[in-house]
Amino acid sequence: MAAMRPVLDGSISGNFDFARDRRPFAMGLALIVGADPDQANVLGRLLRREGYRTLAVADGEAAVGHCRNTRPAIIFIELGLTGLKGFEAVRVLKRDCGDEETPVVFMTQRLDEDMLLKCVEAGGDDFLAEPIEPSRLKSRLLVLERLRGLRSAMVDRKRALSELLDWEREEEALAERVLGRAVKNRNVLMDRIGLVQRPAAVFSGDLVLTQHLPDGGLRVLLADFTGHGLAAAVGALPIADAFHAMTLKGVGDDILLEEINRKLYQLLPADRFMAACLVTIPVHGEELLWWNGGMPSGWLRTAQGLRELTAHALPLGILPELPVLEAPIRIRVQAGDRLLLMTDGLLEAEDSQGRMFWNYGFETLLGDWEYGGSLLSRLFEQLDVHCADTEQADDIAVLEIPFGPDLIAASGLASGMAAKGGWTAPHACDETPVSAGFSSPLVSPSQAEPSARGTALIVDDSAINRQLLSYMLRQEGFVTLTANDGEEAIACLESTRPDMIFMDVVMPRMNGIEATRAIKTRLGEDFVPVIFLSALRSEETMMECIRAGGDDFLTKPFNVALLKARIRSMERARDLRRRDAAANLVLIELLERRQQEQLLAERVFSRAIKNRNVAIERLGLIQRPTATFNGDLVLTQYLPDGGLRVLMADITGHGLGATIGALPVAEAFHAMTLKGVADNAVLAEINRKLHLLLPTERFMSACLVTISRDGRVLRWWNGGMPSVWVRTRRGLIELVSHALPLGVLPTLPVEDKSRRLDIELGDALLLFTDGLAAASDRRGIRFGEARLKTLLNRWSRDRPLLPDLESALNAHCGDVEQPDDIAALEIHIEATLFTGAPARD
Amino acid sequence: MSVTSSIDKEKGVVTIAIEGRFDFAQHKAFRDAYKGIDSKSMKFVVDLSAASYLDSSALGMLLLLREFVGSDPTRVRIKGSGEDVRRVLRIANFDKLFSFD
Questions:
Q1: Which of B57, B67, B93 sits opposite A720 (nearest CB)?
Q2: Which of A51, A122, A345, A719 could cysteine-pair with A22, CB 3.0–4.6 Å?
Q3: Average per-residue pLDDT in chain A?
Q4: What is the least distance, in Å, from the CA of B31 to any CA of chain A?
Q5: Using the beta-carbon criterion (under 8 Å), do A2 and B56 form an inter-chain contact?
Q6: Is A378 found in the same domain as A264?
Q7: Given A697, A699, A749, which is nearest B61 (Cβ)?
Q8: What is the pLDDT of residues A124-137, one digit of tens each?
Q9: CA-to-CA distance for A460 and A482, rounded, in angstroms?
Q10: How far B94 CA lies from chain A's nearest CA (Å)?
Q11: Residue A17 is assigned to a structural domain of this protein
Q12: Class of domain B2-100
């Protein structure tokens, strides 16, 4: 069901496609700050001709007040203001209004170096000498508008990336909740076993499971998946299921381990596995069965001393079958003994200097462990001292099992151990904050140390010009490189990346415009400002330079003070842009890592779901997910009497959170159907599970159909799905939604029972999710119920409908991205449908 | 797209009106519309007469409001839904959970 996933547009290239809109006011508001009304009038008129709306205010205070409410597109400000001085006002505007994107142009009568540098330092981007020349103003506007366009494109991208990340995080939080509940709900005796868990990410790769054996014994599993992302957490679900079900049945350790190994081998890719410790304590409590595959040693504190229980087996999921020699080991224990189990995240927990807990603290602590006492709370006190604020890379889980009659007696009184031990609740670590580095103060002018300002590339065919500029730039703290023409400049980029480029326009072999175009294309999102220096003054030349990717334009012969100030302002623009690009890179990497983890989780997940389906090849099925994870679910299974049961469902949302909810549903569906449990009981159980697992606002619409072995009776139930259509000899029958979706109420209303319809061989069913009718074309017109009905009316006995449906859908939607998952299922009631089904009773 | 709420203190009724698309984008505004109101003394009317579209997250928001009033079907009334909106509510069988005009 629809719940939008934010969509990301293409990337920002160095070549900003520059177009001007000169319709009245199209360029936005230009704020003019100055005491001289005549001057403001002249400037205002010029700006309006260029497509700006203008507003003039007399002083800095008024300007600041205005900018607190709205953001102008550009600000012109007089230096010699009364009250708040010009650059004071700009400093306040840039700092307090959080607006670094709006270009600020100072208007001044003096272009002396000190004054100009002060303006740049305050946050100014450009200067206009008074009185203002219209042609100069026009050219400066071009440069500034382009700069602003680049900046806002970057900011927009950052916003889009953050939105996408937020969405993913929300889905993950939900998935975590579902997984956590599904795994932890079934654990027993957690009040008597000491446990501390500290996951390094939303999803922990550490798994703790406990369950009673039928004879009253206890079994504990502590495991650690490679990786600690989502895939690990998803893999935990089938393991938890096998562990609980087999332990409750009293299955032996070796068979349980064999089964978990088999599942993992099947679900995980070759480079992933699960290290695990399995401890089984028989009801008499005088021994334990120990199995350790790839986990750190367990430590058993007995009256005689400390005993190390090393790993003697391979981790699970690596080989298709477990080696025979790696069987569980029998170890004698007595009341009062304690066993400490841990994941390697504890031993490898680092302090600020990268020293591991293993060597610094842990061994001493073990040596001081008094018989009969709990080590856990002291262990974590020490760990906190060791790690302090250092962020840990791996999940930490530690388990302490106190042996004695209390542990085994399932109905015994609480031992009070939990209270004394001071066991703490799991404590979630936040992920690396992404926002770090997003805000930094405006770049202050750097000292004129050699090379402090990076490398400048000077491209000019005149040796004198190169020398002059080179000298000036070295004085300013640049290292300089020179090139005679465009081709040489491009060759220069092979070995170095300059921090700024000064470009002549007219040169032999390759001119500055061509060279700039090539350079900007090559650099892509890596921003290196190109400043054109030319004797040419025409607007067309300037436009061409800017279109090619030039970032500024100065006419020769240049005013040295002005050039220096421009360089400063361009450096600031460059650093701002690089900072944004770096921040975006962090976001992109985070997203990519998540997507990779999701792909893996999806693989684990779909194998767990789809592996158990039956007769899928004899059903027509279309599935089009909108994200890696799909909210639509199709399950099929035979009943013991040979009948076929099908569930089509749609969980709200279509991200990870939606999909994870499907796992427990699939478990219940398959297990209960295989046992021959009736429709209403299966629905009641799925409803109960979902109500427990999902938050209030999420639910699952579903259709359950059960077809009898002879193909003559259809039992159907529709809770919140679009109508199911049955094509019979007598015509179409519509099975309208008559029940609430699953997971809304704690128990299903009594009237929401499944219903009966008599059918016969040769009839057919069509089930689909609401994404089908909602599929839209470019103009947003839905595929709709009417188109579906037309197709349904043409549905004949000798021809499947799905191929026609699919081509109609393609014809309607084209390649438009759809907001919702689409699934459609066609079932022909034929004898072959039951091939492979259990024989009739 | 907007969510507006008005309170009739005399009748003890809070009316939350949704205009345009009712989807996840309205989540915060919808919750804000009833947050802080005494759920025991007031009744709620969700006015969908100006809503053009409803998605599953909108259904989820209605479920949250239902939970807020203690799951009493007489305390939340949904009124004035158009053809498209009604279809979504009908398929979900939400008449079992809310009163409709």
A1: B93
A2: A51
A3: 81
A4: 12
A5: yes
A6: yes
A7: A697
A8: 888 887 777 787 78
A9: 8
A10: 7
A11: no
A12: alpha beta
